Amino acid sequence: MWCPFCAHPETSVLESRAAEDGQSLRRRRECQKCQKRFTTWERVEGPTVFVIKRDGGREAFDREKIVRGVIKSFDKRPVSVDQIRQLADEVEREVRRKEATEISSKAIGKMVLKRLKNIDKVAWIRFASVYFELTDLTEFEKLFEKIS
Hints:
This protein has 148 residues and is of the alpha+beta class. It folds into 2 domains: 1-44; 46-147. It contains 5 helices and 6 strands, in the order βββββααβααα. The strands form 2 sheets. Strands 1-2-3 form a 3-stranded antiparallel sheet, with no helix packed on it. It has a 3-stranded mixed sheet with strand order 5-4-6. α1 packs across α2 (81-97), α2 runs antiparallel to α3 (105-119) and α3 (105-119) packs antiparallel against α4 (121-131).
């Protein structure tokens, strides 16, 4: 494992433990050159699932895209990185449990929205405004009625 700080190729594993979800392994590492510490994650990679985009395009499922989208929704909101990762883990598990080789981006968005609503309603509104492609105030008002 290369050190992300100095690119030295040798690091030591200080601690390994299963993550909360039991589906991944968290390792605490230390660079043997600069002595800086960092965390790595290992997870099982299943068969490739393709996401069918709104425009009909296809791309491989990427859990990190969910994390990035949710992080934007939680901007300046009281939420931990662990909560965001847990949400992404849950969505990924649900996608992989379907045992399908393709899934629509719309279905993934619904999975995210379902979980966001229970965590933070402001983040839900932010994510939903992009998901539903809202363009004017009346559409936002209808969205607010849904969450109330």
